[in-house]
Amino acid sequence: MNRRAEALSTRATGPVSGLLGLPAADPHAALHAELMARLAEPEVSLLGADILVLSPTPTAPTDQGNRKRIYAVCRELQRRGARIHFVFYPQEWWFDYLPDDLVREMADQWDSFHLLPATRHTYTKPEGADYKIDEWWDDSIRDYLQWLFKRNRFDAFIVNYAYMSKAFEYAPANTLKILDTHDKFTGRRQLLDDNGIAPEFFYTTEDQEAIAMNRAQLVWAIKDEEAEFYRSISSTPCITMPHIEPEHRVPRVRRPEDENRLVIGMLGSGNAINVNNARAFVKVALPILARREAPVVIRFVGAMCSRLPDLEGIPGVELVGPVDSTDEFYRDVDLVIVPLAFSTGLKIKAVEAFATGMPLVAMGHALEGIPTRHPWHKCETMEEVAEVCCDIAFDRQLLMGLTETTTRTYALVRAQAKIAFDDTLRRLTNHPTVVMTVDRSFFELDSPYREHIFQTVNLMRHLAQVVLYFDQPLPTSQNALFEAFHGMSTHCKLAIAPGLEPANGRSLGLPSAQASLQDVLAAYGRATLWVTRVCPEMLTLGKQPARLPLFVRLDVVRMFQPSMLGTAMAHLTAQFHETTLIDSHPLSAPVPAAEHARFVTVPFWRWRPWLLNAEGGPQRVLLLARADQVELADVLVDALDKFHPEWAPARVVVGECDTKVPPPAEPLHRERLHIGTMLGRFRLMRPLPLAVLDLSGDAPEFEVFRETFRRAQVPVIQPEQGDGNPEQISLWQLTDLVMTLGENLARWSAQAQREEKARYGSDAGWNHIWKSMSVKNVLW
Question: Can you list the alpha helix ranges (DSSP code H) found in 309-397?
Answer without folding.
Answer: 326-330, 348-356, 382-394
